[in-house]
């Protein structure tokens, strides 16, 4: 009976995960160039990966952004390409960037909330997991 209870506990942990115990392996960085009010602009989102980890190409990296008053997004959901010409396995050599195309009517500082979803693996022990991270894309409009 104890073995059955332990097995159910372990299976439950695998299904719900222990996200709080996982490191944030991939951190976004944002271009700082100001966007001109009334014109199309782009904020580039790039990523830094902690040494010792790799980012899977499949499933793709997803960036989903929420609508913000004063900003019109060309697209609110972006997916990374599965191809990486430098890669000979299932991991990115160069993690792709996302270009967030937008237009703002007036000058100001904006923050676009969103969610970043990706899969990573630890080189040391082969542990792999999905990571879901809340992000905020800063936009300066002049």
Protein described:
With 142 residues, this protein is mainly beta. 11% of the residues lie in helices and 45% in strands. It contains one helix and nine strands; from the N terminus they run H-E-E-E-E-E-E-E-E-E. The protein has one helix spanning 2-16, and strands at 26-30, 40-49, 53-55, 62-65, 71-73, 77-79, 98-104, 108-122, 128-141. The strands form two sheets. Strands 3, 4, 6, 8 and 9 form a five-stranded antiparallel sheet that branches. A four-stranded antiparallel sheet has the order 1-2-7-5, with no helix packed on it. A hairpin with a 5-residue loop joins strand 8 (108-122) and strand 9. The longest helix is centred in the first third of the chain and has 15 residues, at 2-16. The radius of gyration is 19 Å and the shape is elongated. It starts with a helix and ends with a strand.
Largest sheet: 5 strands, antiparallel
Uncertain spans: 4-19
Helix content: 10-25%
The chain-level mean pLDDT equals 86
Using the alpha-carbon principal axes, give the shape: elongated
Strand content: over 45%
- Report the order of strands and helices: HEEEEEEEEE
Rg, nearest Å:
19 Å
Seen as an oligomer or otherwise, the chain set is: single chain
Structure annotation, total helices? 1
Distance between the termini: 67 Å
The total count of strands amounts to 9
Helical/strand content category: mainly beta
């Amino acid at each position: 009976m104890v073995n059955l209870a332990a097995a159910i506990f372990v299976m439950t942990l695998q299904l719900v995960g222990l996200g709080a115990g996982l490191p944030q392996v991939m951190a976004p960085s944002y271009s700082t160039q100001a966007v001109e009010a009334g014109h199309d602009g782009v904020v580039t989102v790039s990523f830094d990966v902690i040494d010792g980890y790799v980012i899977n190409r499949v499933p793709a990296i997803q960036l989903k952004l929420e609508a913000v008053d004063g900003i019109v997004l060309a697209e609110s959901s972006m997916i990374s390409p599965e191809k990486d010409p430098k890669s000979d396995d299932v991991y990115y050599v160069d993690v792709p960037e996302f270009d967030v195309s937008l237009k703002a009517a007036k000058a100001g500082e904006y923050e676009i909330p969103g969610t970043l979803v990706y899969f990573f693996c630890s080189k040391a022990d082969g542990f792999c997991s999905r990571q879901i991270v809340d992000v905020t894309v800063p936009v300066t409009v002049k």
